[in-house]
Amino acid sequence: MARTPSATAEPLQLPPVAPVAGPSLAMRRLRAVLAEPKVTLGGGFILLLLAIAIVAPWIAPKNPLDQDLMLASLPPAGLAGAEPGYLLGTDTLGRDVLSRLIFGSRVALTVAFVAASLAALIGTTLGLLAGWYRGWVDIAVSRLVDVWMAFPPVLLSILLVAVLGAGIGSVILAIAIIDWTRFCRVVRAETMAQAESEYVTAARAIGFPRFHILVREILPNIAPALLALVSLEMGIAVIVEAILSFVGLSVSSGTPTWGGMIAEGRQFIHQSWWVLAAPLAALFATVLAFNQLGEGLRRALDPVLRR
After folding, report:
1. 275 in Cβ contact with 265 (< 8 Å)
2. How far apart are CA 251 and CA 307, in angstroms?
3. Structural domain boundaries of the chain?
4. What is the C-alpha separation between 280 and 214, in angstroms, rounded?
5. Each residue of 98-116: pLDDT tens digit?
6. How far apart are CA 256 and CA 253, in angstroms?
7. pTM for the full predicted model
8. CA 138 to CA 8: how far, in whole Å?
């Protein structure tokens, strides 16, 4: 007779299966960002412009301040009367337009990155405090934002630079003082929304300090929206710097700036149109790239827009 297995036989032991680790949240966000065409196009242009600005002294074909009235108002290459070595022609003082355009990118990008970062720091700090602590803190910050936004931003920036004095530091400070309100309003609203989330409730139940929850839990979750806003603010900073340069309130007159080139070129637009066209094209392309980068980051990092 065949023997039947004992009821007390040990169960079959299977080898443990190692859990498969998926990509981290940071890696998933990075992949989403790189897959967004607006990020790759806008970000690629900004990186290229940043590289050009860094190596400007070595790649500029001429000294941007050298004047030669014998070579004044030379047209760009390919037009009648052009001279070799002046790809974008010269201005009315015989200065190389391409070299001035390259060196002008240094001022534009410096103002864009520093002013936007400073405005983000001020606005984010006040927005986090207002949205988290509520009460009199929120009332004070909100009233300050309302009063500050009642002034026209361009006129206020001109007034601040006129009071502080011309210079790149004054321009950066003026833009940061004016534009922190954009960050404050967005961060305040996002902080209020995140404060009602389940993960914040759980962190409170565990006993995490309020400052820890604010900085370690809420801030990382609003960082995607903040990053997109910083990129958009950089485009605005480039425009404001160009306006201040146009009216002669930016850096010293000897430093090439896109706004200063536009101001000079508009006086001779019928004789030397390229002096005006070159900085206008550079300004338009840079602002468009920053806007596309910001829009792409917002779409890539916002789970609602990715659906």
Report:
1. yes
2. 46
3. 87-301
4. 43
5. 999 999 999 999 999 999 9
6. 8
7. 0.85
8. 70
